[in-house]
Every structure is written in structure tokens, then in C-alpha cells.
Amino acid sequence: xxxxxxxxxxxAQRRSDIMRPAVVFIMLTVMIDAMGIGLMIPVMPDLIREVxxxxxxxxxxxxxxxxxxFAVMQFLFSPVIGGLSDRFGRRPVLLITTVxxxxxxxxxxxxxxxxxxxxxxxVGGITASTQSTAYAYMADISKPEDRSANFGLIGASFGAxxxxxxxxxxxxxxxxTRAPFWAAAVLTAGNALLGWFVLRETVTDATRxxxxxxxxxxxxTLKHLGKLPGVRQLLIVYFLYNVAFAVYPSVWPYFAVxxxxxxxxxxxxxxxxxxxIMALVQAGLIRVALRALGERGTVxxxxxxxxxxxxxxxxxxxxxxxxxxxPLAALGGVISPALQGIMSQRVADNAQGELQGALTSVSxxxxxxxxxxxxxxxxxxxxxxxxTYLPGAPxxxxxGLAMVGLLLFLLRPRRQNLT
Length: 419
Prior knowledge:
Layout: H1 2-7, H2 11-40, H3 44-52, H4 56-88, H5 90-110, H6 114-127, H7 131-140, H8 147-172, H9 179-198, H10 218-225, H11 231-245, H12 247-260, H13 264-315, H14 319-324, H15 326-330, H16 335-344, H17 352-380, H18 393-410
Helix pairs in contact: 2-7, 2-8, 2-9, 3-4, 4-5, 4-6, 4-7, 4-17, 5-6, 5-9, 7-8, 7-17, 8-13, 8-16, 10-17, 11-16, 11-17, 11-18, 12-17, 13-16, 13-18, 17-18
């Protein structure tokens, strides 16, 4: 009975009661998800050869299969997880998937075959789909006008995990190929325990919604959301932003070698710098931008910075200048939380999980498509038969996509520009 009384508290009172411990758990969940991926990167070549016995080239092929499988599972299951959280609540979905994720890391730490690693990546992709529920929880405990800034906290957490994961994975690799998986399992289990004590439910009887399989898939969800006024174009802009932004993880290591002749250590430093600045942008600068420009102005400014950053990287030949321009490129990170905030205000409170599931699927689809497009573009303009040697061609392609996204955003009918 006591729990039920707390469940039906007015939203403003609920926010003051649960926001701080809940936000800590949500941020840790997203950061550990990102760290879990990064922890594995340094050991995957050796681990795959250890369990499969093939060459490095074969290990690279399997590595690509495992990464693609993970992204495909995220794409397919993000709306399912988001829809389940709209029906059964954020707390059980987050806690159950976090526990399963911890168990999955244990399975991968013990895996003795490539097929068990593949199963681990399938399960990992499904459980990592809880990013949609994390965003939905943040929407639940935030005032509508604060959602974009608070979504930025989640983006910052992912950025921090992106920085810390590979560094920690490289250090733990000294203790064997399985050590990073055990570390990820311990971190995830500890976070699940924290969530058990601090996470309270935000879905009430008034906002609970029936689960519908027709909408609990990426295609059904996107079709439904696309019918809402102004949302379809925003979804396209969000997709184009993610495809363009994925140029960094897709081709940066190859581009840095071809253009600047950087060592692996220097490439790692540059990626860590980019991730750190992205985290700062989404944790702090996003709030300044929103206060000064509003959500619409923030999206426009973010696109302009992105276009300038892509153009610079596509044409410069100096590694030092590339490092100096890193903050410029990272400023585009304000686009994602601002777009999420705009769309979050356009759907009902009982559909926040569905929306965030759709957005996670969109970003996952971008991560499936962009590496293929960007690496093919890089190969086309750096190979022996290249019409002109241009290692920065993928960044110029990303610039074009960002320009199209900005144009679509600006051309929305004025009556749809609610922010």
C-alpha cells in the first residue's frame, strides 16, 4: 500500500524524490554499456584466434560479424524493450536486462567456441537495447523543457564509457583475454545491485500502456511515429545525423594512418580526446546552448559546427590541426539530445519508451549502414584505381549528409516548429 501511494505522487513531487539517485543509476547503466563494448576491443583479435584457431584476417572477419550482429540485435529489439517498459514499467525492465547482461559477460568470459561468442553478442545486443528505457526513464522524471539537457547527460555517460572502455580493456588485457569480460560482469552486476536499492518506478496506472507487437518492432514503431505531426522529418534528420557522425568510429583509424601516418597509440589518444570533449559537450555545453538558443537553434548550430568539422577533416593534411579542430567537430554532439527533446515533447507520456526505442533503432541502423558506406568511400579514394587520392572523402560525404539534414530541419512547416 505504501508503494502504491508513492507511485501516484504528482510528477513534480516524484521528480524531487527520485531524480538524483535514479539519474546516477541511469548514467552508470549507459556508461557501463559503452565501457563493456570498449573493454572488449583490445582483446577481440586474440580472443577470436584463441577460440577459433584461425589467422588474423579470419579473426577480423569474425570480428565484423560479431559487431554487426550486436548492432542488428539492437536495431530489432530496442522498440520491443521500450514497449515492454511502457507496459510493465522501467524498473523491472532495467533491472532484469542488467542482470542478464552481467550473466552474458560471464558466458563470454568462459566461451570456448566462436559460436558461443556469437550467442553472447546476440544476447548482448538485446540487453544493450535498454538504452531506450534509460532515455524513457529520464523523460519520465524530467520536465518537458528540461528533457533535452537531461538527455545530454545520457550522451555524456556514453561518451565517458567510450573513453574509459578501451583504456581499461588495454590495461586488463595484460591479465589475459578473459579479464575484460570478468571486469564488465562485475561492473554490471554491481550496477544492478545499486539499481535494486535506488530505482523506483515511474510508470503509473495513468501512463501504463498495453504492449502491441504490431508496434513493438522497428518498422511498425517508425511507421506509427511517422504519422505524428512533424516527427517523420525529425526522424530522418536524426538518422542522417547518426549516419554522418558514425564516420568517426568507421574510418578514423584508417584515415589517420593514410593522412597523418599516426601510430596506434596516437590514434587511441585522438579518439580518447574526441570522446572526452563529446562528454563535456553533452553534459555541460548542451545546457548553455539550450538556454541561449532554444532546442531549434541548438540543432541548427550543431549542424553548422558539424559541417565545418567535416569539411576541415576532409581537406586538411596536418595532424596537429586535426587535433586542434577536435573540439569543433565534437560541438555537433548537441544535435542528438536537442532532437530527442523536441520529439519527446511531441509524443504522449505513455509512449516515451516506444519513442526512445525507435530512436535507438534508428541509431543502430545507422551504425549498421554507415561503416559499410564510409569504409567503401575511403577505399574508393585511397586505392590504386582512385580517380584522385582523397583520404578525407568519407568526411566530405558526411558533410553532405549533414547539409541535407540541416536543410530538412529548416524546411519543416512553421506550424511544426514548436520549439
